[in-house]
Amino acid sequence: MDTKSCTFPSALDMNKLPIVRIKLNPPPLRCIAEAILPGLLENFENVSAEVVQCPDLTQPPFNLTSEGLCGDENVLDIGDITNLIPSIKREKLYNVKDLKQITGSDPLVIIGACGGPYPFFGADSECVKNVKMAGDCVENGTHIYMTKSDDNTECYHKSLPVDEMRFSLLANLFTSNGIKGEVLKIVCEVRKGPLNFSTCISEALAKHFGDEIIALGGVILMENGKVKVHIVKPSLPKIPMKSKIELDNWLHFIELSPPLVGVGCIVSHDPGLNLRLQHFHLYTDRNDGGHYHDDTEPKTIKYTGYFNVSKQFIKID
């Protein structure tokens, strides 16, 4: 779509939007590992959870902008589904540059799942946010995925330029200083229950910790087994959508083959802020990706996740 003649809203200043900060007192990673094992074992045949040194996430297959997940850790929930239903709020355009002031971190590394910057193509997309800001230097490893038309499910991929830092509608992001250190490694193979990997972890955390908020952010590697994702159609409707079911009609559901990597967040409990408890977007070195739903080959699936726990939860807008 030619966007030269289109008029788009300016990005909102997140520093001027409603912000709720919740200071967290997370348990040690080893305690989290022990707490989630029973829930994981109910849903997967083979499970392990342990504390390890983070692998270098700048290397394949992760290819992120920073080595690790440690230092001044935050999980952020920005916007929500009400920006999509019953009508799309095009004014909900944000810029991750604002998060440097909001978190007070430098360097600031941002990974996670969000809506792509609508003005960049004049169409909606799934966005894999991957940004590092250190001083005045910015490294942008962000990817977006969309389909070529409403009728064509072929995935279209674009790496965003360094100066395109915007996203639309909603986001679930993990921020840190990006340094290496200890992380929680979770491996699950052969799914026997109904829950996907991230939902299983969220529910296992909730069962053990109750109303205490445990917020994780990090990466998932899917080494075996195919996975179901969705990509939004380029022309989401202008008419009101009454439910998520109607929204689903404007999504393309496709199956992706391993290896796959996902970035996003997992939260155990919503204290009444209309939070999304788990949200991951996937990418590959084959230029396809999308919003993670579930695995489609449970007998062969293998997930390996590397996570850190947040010391602060931030809800914006």
Treating each run of at least 4 consecutive H or I residues as one helix, how many helices? Answer: 5
Radius of gyration: 18 Å
Q: Strand percentage, roughly? A: 35-45%
The best one-word shape is globular
Number of beta strands: 19
Largest sheet: 10 strands, mixed
SSE order, as H and E?
Answer: EHEEEHEHEEEEEEHEEHEEEEEE
**Proportion of residues in helical segments:** 10-25%
Termini separation (Å)?
29 Å
Which terms summarize this structure?
single chain, 317 residues, mainly beta, ten-stranded mixed sheet, nine-stranded antiparallel sheet, 5 helices, 13% helix, disordered N terminus
Walk me through this protein's architecture.
The protein is mainly beta and 317 residues long. 13% of the residues lie in helices and 42% in strands. The chain contains 5 helices and 19 strands. Strands 1, 3, 4, 5, 6, 7, 8, 9, 10 and 19 form a 10-stranded mixed beta sheet that branches. A 9-stranded antiparallel beta sheet has the order 2-11-18-12-15-16-17-13-14. Helix 1 packs across helix 4 (197-209). The longest helix has 15 residues, at 29-43. The protein is globular, with a radius of gyration of 18 Å. Residues 1-5 have low confidence and may be disordered.
Quick description:
It is built from 5 helices and 19 strands. With 317 residues, the chain is mainly beta. Strand 16 and strand 17 (289-295) form a beta hairpin.
What topology does this entry show?
Elements: E1 19-23, H1 29-43, E2 44-53, E3 74-79, E4 93-95, H2 99-103, E5 108-115, H3 118-121, E6 126-134, E7 137-140, E8 143-147, E9 155-159, E10 166-176, E11 182-191, H4 197-209, E12 215-224, E13 227-232, H5 244-248, E14 251-256, E15 260-267, E16 278-283, E17 289-295, E18 302-309, E19 312-316
Parallel strand pairs: 3-19
Antiparallel strand pairs: 1-19, 2-11, 3-10, 4-10, 5-6, 5-10, 6-7, 6-8, 8-9, 11-18, 12-15, 12-18, 13-14, 13-17, 15-16, 16-17
Helix pairs in contact: 1-4
